[in-house]
């Protein structure tokens, strides 16, 4: 107990400023009265005495002023000291109080800190990605233009792009880019680097200025221009040693010499992130409408009407359509535009919302938990507080004391939160790029600081006000008179605490349900059958530079030689080439028309993944031949595409009741090409992603003069060693060639699962924190209940009540609260999980088994938390209890 | 009797502190005491006296408290604080040195 060291004149703080004036006046009046008395005693009349007294006094008004000033100065100084002393005392009492229950304090600080930190970090990411404008010049006028063929949106073709740039009037600028991989050689090694071909004034449109040299402009793309390249800051640092005189030097890419024109600034923008180089695009004049591979960017004129711009796009597309009717028939496809930001950010709204909701809810649960623990502390300290009040501490002072305690805890939590937020933002910088857009722009900036301050202040109010209102409310003297254990506030305390605990469960339930649904999805994804034995299959990409391999015969010879040499490596059981890899690396989708079920005019033709393979491919992967025959060397030699193999899903989709073998199709929208015949059906394989349905795949023979091939090896033993040997072989054949994107199929599957795995682990750990806090909450409430009712339970037991009934009573009390919370939680979850259905795979958002399992787990854990205090209650020795009272 | 002398700067505070050395006293009492001790040789206005009291109070050399007076009026009684007592000792010693020095010069002529 803290004894006030000396009486604190609290009235000093409450006195009105006028008090000083009155006091001085009174003092001077008394003086004058005394003087008048003395003068009258000497025989002066009343009036004379008065006049004489005032005369003798001197300048009365000036003195009064002077005294006021002096007193007020003193008063102000005292008030300041008192305030500081009070604060210091509050703090001392707080620290002592907090240290008296260190576990409570640690739990509160850690969990609220986690909530504050995680919420800040996630909000920073969401703010950077979704809320902030793009870091380009006048970003709200930037749009992406695309081909709109619902439900698909796909890029432009060369024909589209040329028509758009020639005819548009609504845009200030139009530019485009495509992705391109090239092999960078510096004499010592050959590496695959990622970059972009850009057309038009790409950098001018985005308003990017160079860090060094100049950037590309529209003229660089004119036929016959010198080869120039712009590289990223990272590329310049890593590959060009950050040399200041690098501008104007030669950079060897794909065996060609490019002149380094400029270097981009660090972290130029989200579109440039992860790109090593930029070269001018030089596209050949189109001979047909497709292929579609160009991403088009445009800047609207200032004040331009979007509707008018869209109108114009539709008009140009309509005029263009008849020109290419021979190779493209889908007349419902048109052109559309969307904000560039939507294109950059992509479809992360749901993930972002889910993550933000999860961390925010954990923060709320942590605050509810803190509130609950503090209410309990206040309840057990009512006597102390009552003593304080009796000794002269005002009610306001008691509330202030309790709030100060909450503030102390919240500030400690905020410190943890700052650390966590910093760590989280660093983590996002280092590893976030694969999971979330624009993570390079996440920063611990003013927004984050304000959010942190707001969260901390709200924490103080959330977990401080309830206990404070509680500590100050109610009749204080009753607490003093009562025996402390069965204090009068206990019923109200119980009500508040039950409400808090029920809230915790109500929040934790939906979190746990979502986490469980995500984990079930992840499990389902992991169990997806790829359609073949994935063990010991390793792949990589080989790309031939155009300059040295321009002759079809030479290319063909190279691939044959490569296959022969790799097949000779010990441990290699089979080698094949393809232009796509399971489970999610398909490069081509193609449209086609069936001979016996032609697509009616004006409708979109079916589109499926389209993989070019060498004949060995099926054997290397181990795909079963269901019907017909496999592709062979003669199919590859044919000048036209005459034979294809389809998979079982394709056959089922288009010929559910008959054999697909022998059917004929025309692909790519061609109406005059010779028919292509389906010669065989093989087992299905996932190419478009684990979570995508089997829509059918078409295999065509790989034409020999192909610059880029995926190398696919099946090995008998260590796949890594075989791939290393293959790398040696390639280097031996041509030191300028690189083997890129090396991965086993299992690694590719694991990589495909990384995003859903991270998300489900994040949500699951947050849900577990929420569940743990809820369990702590119900345990605390029941322990308190038992403590409050020790006497009652003792009497019950003494009167012959069974221990079983006591156990049931206590557990029943607790589970009632839990059931209420879980019930509300389940209803909320039913409403909310639907929003996350796009993140789920193989499980419905209202999956009954998951809901039941989650409820069961929650109830079981709550039961365990209730049984501990219940067992203590039923184990009480009645005699001991009653004696102690 | 010659006319009362004007007070030297700074001496009033010393006189007030000295008057309070005997015990708590209200303003009027101090005025009477100082007047009596000096036999009216020093001209001390009540105004100046009160200003000195409040100044000393602000500086923490005296403290004030309302108390009933001898003829049952509530009056503001002043008493020395420990700081005030120390200051009284110092100032008294200073004054004595000062007076001796002045006296020595005057006697020497």
Q: Would you write up a description of this structure?
A:
The complex is a heterodimer of chains A (885) and B (109). With 885 residues, chain A is an alpha+beta fold. Chain A has 4 domains: 11-96; 151-331, no CATH class; 349-526 and 752-884, no CATH class; 537-734, no CATH class. In chain A, α4 crosses α13 (395-431) and α13 (395-431) runs antiparallel to α14. The longest helix of chain A is centred in the C-terminal third of the chain and has 44 residues, at 745-788. With 109 residues, chain B is α+β, with helices and mostly antiparallel strands. Chain B has helices at 11-20, 27-37, 46-58, 82-108, and strands at residues 25-26, 62-68, 74-80. In chain B, β2 (62-68) and β3 form a beta hairpin. The longest helix of chain B has 27 residues, at 82-108. The model of chain B has no long low-confidence stretch (mean pLDDT 87).
Number of helices of chain B: 4
Q: Please provide the count of β strands of chain B.
A: 3
Shape of chain A: elongated
Share of residues in helices of chain B: 55-70%
Share of β-strand residues of chain A:
15-25%
SSE-based structural type of chain A = alpha+beta
Question: How is the main sheet of chain A built?
Answer: 6 strands, mixed, barrel
Q: What spatial order of strands do you see in the largest sheet of chain B?
A: 1-3-2
Main interface by residue count: A-B, 24 and 20 residues
Straight-line distance between termini of chain B:
27 Å
Helix content of chain A: 40-55%
Domains of chain B (count): 1
Q: Per CATH, which architecture of chain B?
A: Orthogonal Bundle
Low-confidence stretches of chain A: 1-14, 475-488
CATH superfamily caption of chain B: Winged helix-like DNA-binding domain superfamily/Winged helix DNA-binding domain
Q: Quick one: CATH class of chain B?
A: Mainly Alpha
Global mean pLDDT of chain A: 85
Task: Give keywords.
heterodimer; A: alpha+beta; six-stranded mixed β-barrel; six-stranded mixed beta barrel; 25 strands; B: 109 residues; 56% helix; 15% strand
């Amino acid at each position: 107990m803290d004894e006030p060291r000396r009486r604190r004149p609290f009235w000093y703080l409450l006195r009105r400023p006028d008090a000083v004036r009155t006091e001085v006046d009174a003092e001077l009046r008394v003086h004058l009265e005394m003087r008048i008395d003395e003068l009258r005693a000497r025989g002066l009349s009343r009036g004379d005495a008065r006049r004489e007294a005032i005369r003798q006094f001197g300048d009365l008004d000036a003195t009064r002023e002077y005294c006021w000033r002096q007193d007020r100065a003193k008063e102000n100084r005292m008030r300041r000291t008192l305030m500081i002393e009070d604060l210091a005392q509050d703090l001392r009492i707080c620290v002592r109080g907090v240290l008296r229950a260190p576990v409570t304090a640690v739990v509160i600080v850690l969990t609220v800190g986690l909530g504050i930190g995680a919420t800040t970090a996630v909000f920073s990411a969401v703010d950077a990605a979704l809320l902030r404008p793009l870091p380009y010049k006048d970003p709200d006028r930037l749009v992406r233009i695309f081909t709109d063929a619902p439900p698909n949106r796909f890029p432009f073709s060369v024909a589209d792009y040329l028509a758009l740039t020639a005819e548009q009037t609504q845009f200030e600028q139009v530019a485009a880019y495509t992705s391109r991989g090239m092999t960078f050689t510096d004499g010592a090694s050959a590496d695959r680097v990622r970059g972009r071909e850009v057309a038009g004034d790409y950098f001018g449109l985005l308003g990017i200025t160079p860090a060094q040299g100049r950037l590309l402009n529209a003229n660089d793309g004119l036929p016959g221009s010198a080869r120039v390249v712009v590289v990223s800051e990272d590329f310049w640092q890593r590959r060009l040693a950050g040399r200041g005189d690098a501008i104007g030097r030669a950079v060897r890419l794909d065996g060609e010499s490019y002149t380094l024109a400029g270097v981009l600034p660090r972290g130029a923008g989200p579109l440039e992130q992860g790109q090593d180089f930029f070269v001018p695009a030089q596209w050949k004049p189109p001979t047909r409408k497709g292929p579609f591979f160009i991403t088009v960017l445009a800047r609207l004129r200032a004040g331009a009407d979007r509707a008018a711009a869209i109108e114009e796009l539709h008009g140009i597309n309509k005029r263009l359509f008849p020109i290419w009717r021979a190779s493209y028939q889908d007349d419902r496809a048109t052109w559309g535009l969307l904000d560039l930001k939507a294109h950059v950010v992509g479809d992360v709204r749901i993930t972002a919302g889910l993550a933000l909701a999860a961390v925010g809810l954990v923060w709320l649960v942590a605050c509810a938990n803190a509130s609950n623990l503090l209410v309990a502390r206040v309840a057990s300290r009512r006597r102390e507080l009552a003593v304080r009040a009796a000794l002269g501490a005002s009610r306001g002072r008691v509330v202030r004391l309790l709030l100060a305690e909450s503030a102390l805890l919240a500030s400690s939590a905020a410190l943890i939160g700052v650390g966590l937020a910093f760590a989280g933002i660093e983590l996002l910088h280092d590893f976030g790029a694969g999971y979330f857009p624009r993570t390079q722009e996440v920063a611990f900036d003013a927004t984050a600081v304000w959010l942190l301050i707001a969260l901390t202040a709200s924490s103080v109010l959330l977990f401080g006000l309830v206990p404070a209102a509680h500590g100050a409310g109610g009749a204080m003297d009753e607490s003093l008179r009562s025996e402390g254990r069965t204090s009068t506030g206990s019923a109200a305390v119980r009500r508040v605490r039950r409400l808090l605990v029920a809230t915790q469960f109500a929040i934790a339930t939906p979190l746990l349900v979502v986490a469980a649904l995500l984990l079930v999805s992840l499990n389902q994804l992991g169990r997806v059958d790829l359609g073949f034995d994935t063990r010991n299959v390793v792949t990589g990409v080989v790309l031939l530079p155009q300059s040295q391999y321009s002759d079809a015969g030479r290319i063909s010879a190279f691939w044959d030689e490569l296959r022969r040499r790799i097949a000779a490596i010990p441990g290699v059981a089979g080698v094949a080439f393809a232009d796509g890899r399971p489970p999610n690396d398909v490069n081509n989708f193609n449209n086609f028309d069936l001979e016996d079920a032609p697509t009616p005019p004006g409708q979109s033709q079916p589109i499926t993944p389209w993989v070019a393979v060498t004949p060995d491919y099926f054997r290397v992967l181990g795909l079963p031949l269901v019907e017909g025959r496999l592709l062979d060397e003669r199919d590859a030699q044919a000048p036209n595409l005459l034979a294809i193999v389809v998979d079982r899903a394709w056959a089922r989709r288009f010929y559910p009741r008959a054999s697909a073998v022998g059917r004929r199709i025309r692909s790519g929208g061609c109406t005059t090409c010779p028919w292509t015949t389906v010669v065989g059906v093989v087992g299905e394989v996932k190419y478009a992603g684990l979570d995508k349905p089997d829509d059918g795949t078409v295999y065509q023979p790989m034409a020999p003069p192909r610059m880029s091939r995926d190398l696919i090896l099946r090995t008998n033993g260590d796949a890594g060693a075989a791939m290393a040997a293959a790398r040696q072989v390639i280097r031996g054949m041509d030191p300028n060639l690189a083997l890129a994107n090396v991965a086993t199929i299992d690694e590719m599957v694991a990589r495909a699962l990384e995003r859903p795995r991270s998300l489900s682990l994040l949500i699951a750990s947050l849900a577990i924190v929420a569940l743990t806090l809820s369990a702590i909450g119900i345990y605390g409430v029941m322990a308190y209940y038992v403590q409050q009712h020790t006497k009652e339970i003792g009497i019950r037991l003494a009167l012959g009540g069974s221990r079983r009934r006591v156990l049931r009573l206590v557990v029943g009390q607790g589970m009632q609260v839990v059931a209420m919370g879980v019930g509300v939680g389940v209803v909320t979850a039913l409403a909310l999980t639907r929003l996350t259905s796009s993140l789920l795979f193989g499980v419905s958002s209202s999956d009954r088994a998951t809901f039941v399992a989650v409820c069961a787990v929650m109830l079981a854990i709550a039961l365990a938390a209730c049984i501990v205090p219940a067992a203590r209650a039923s184990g009480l020795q009645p005699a001991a209890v009653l004696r102690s009272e | 009797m010659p006319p009362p002398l004007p007070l030297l700067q700074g001496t009033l505070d010393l006189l007030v502190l000295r008057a309070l050395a005997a015990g708590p006293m209200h303003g009027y009492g101090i005025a009477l005491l100082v007047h009596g001790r000096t036999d009216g040789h020093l001209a001390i206005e009540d105004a100046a006296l009160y200003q000195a009291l409040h100044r000393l109070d602000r500086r923490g050399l005296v403290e004030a408290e309302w108390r009933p007076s001898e003829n049952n009026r509530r009056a503001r009684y002043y008493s020395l604080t420990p700081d005030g007592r120390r200051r009284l000792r110092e100032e008294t010693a200073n004054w004595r040195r000062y007076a001796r020095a002045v006296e020595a010069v005057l006697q020497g002529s």
